[in-house]
């Protein structure tokens, strides 16, 4: 299995305290994540780090500059007690085709919905993704994303910590391998408690986050 999943777009490291997690990442790696922007109306914002190529890490947490959202924040960050790598996204060459193929292979990634984020310079990025409510509850089966005409975050001059590997644990690896194959991607899996981790190369040497 390739240590880096095919079509990887980004990893999601969610946290109940964005500032603290960004500071911890900088302390451990020697690389400071760049501000990404706010998810208006959802009560979250993010910081980003390039992973090499067209992939990046999203560190996402509550945005104290926004009012309380009407519903739960994305990725259930309100219920987190500590930072966790919760899930990941792939960006196939053709979103609709990938969804049709996955359904034909027995896995439904869910409907597509639009999203947006305002960057610190005021630019609004818009993209489409499959609804995470339909994803495997472990978070180990990625959601799909299409950036359309918006510039990809990895092209915005992000600081970079090259990705060395992504791996995961799950009680029944075969239960996850089927949906991964349906999406045309893969993940190094081991039997055990549900967990998703990644290792990056940094000025301080390889560092692993879970």
The separation of the N and C termini measures 20 Å
- Largest beta-sheet characterization: 8 strands, mixed
Following the backbone from N to C, one meets helices and strands in this order, namely EHEEEEHEEEEHEEE
The value of Rg in angstroms is 16 Å
Strand order of the largest sheet: 2-3-4-1-5-8-7-6
Structural class: alpha+beta
Count of DSSP-assigned helices: 3
* Helix percentage: 10-25%
Q: What shape does the CA trace take?
A: globular
Mean pLDDT: 93
The beta-strand count equals 12
Strand content: 35-45%
Poorly predicted tracts of residues: none
Write a brief caption for the model.
Helices cover 15% and strands 36% of the residues. The protein has 210 residues and is an alpha+beta fold.
Write up what this structure looks like.
There is one protein chain. The protein has an eight-stranded mixed beta sheet with strand order 2-3-4-1-5-8-7-6. Strands 10-9-11-12 form a four-stranded mixed beta sheet, covered by helices on one side. The protein is of the alpha+beta class and 210 residues long. It is globular, with a radius of gyration of 16 Å. 15% of the residues lie in helices and 36% in strands. The model has no long low-confidence stretch (mean pLDDT 93).
Topology:
Elements: E1 8-14, H1 18-29, E2 34-39, E3 44-52, E4 55-62, E5 84-90, H2 95-104, E6 112-118, E7 124-130, E8 143-146, E9 163-170, H3 173-182, E10 188-191, E11 195-200, E12 207-209
Parallel strand pairs: 1-4, 5-8, 9-10
Antiparallel strand pairs: 1-5, 2-3, 3-4, 6-7, 7-8, 9-11, 11-12
């Amino acid at each position: 299995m390739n240590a880096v999943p095919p079509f990887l777009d980004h990893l999601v490291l969610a946290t109940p305290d964005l500032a603290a997690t960004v500071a911890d990442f900088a302390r451990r790696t020697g690389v400071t994540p760049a501000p990404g922007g706010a998810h208006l109306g959802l009560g979250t914002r993010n910081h980003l780090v390039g992973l090499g190529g067209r992939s990046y890490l999203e560190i996402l947490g509550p945005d104290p500059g926004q009012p309380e959202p009407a519903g739960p924040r994305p990725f259930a960050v309100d219920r987190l007690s500590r930072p966790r790598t919760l899930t990941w996204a792939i960006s196939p060459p053709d979103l609709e085709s990938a969804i049709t193929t996955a359904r034909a292979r027995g896995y439904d990634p869910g409907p597509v919905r639009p999203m947006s984020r305002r960057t610190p310079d005021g630019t609004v990025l818009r993209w489409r993704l499959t609804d995470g409510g339909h994803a495997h509850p472990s978070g180990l089966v990625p959601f799909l994303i299409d950036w359309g005409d918006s510039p990809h975050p990895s092209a915005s001059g992000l600081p970079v910590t090259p990705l060395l590997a992504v791996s995961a644990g799950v009680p029944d690896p075969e239960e996850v391998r089927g949906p991964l194959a349906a999406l045309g991607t893969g993940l190094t899996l081991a039997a055990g408690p549900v967990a998703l981790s990644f290792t990056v190369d940094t000025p301080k040497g390889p560092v692993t986050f879970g």
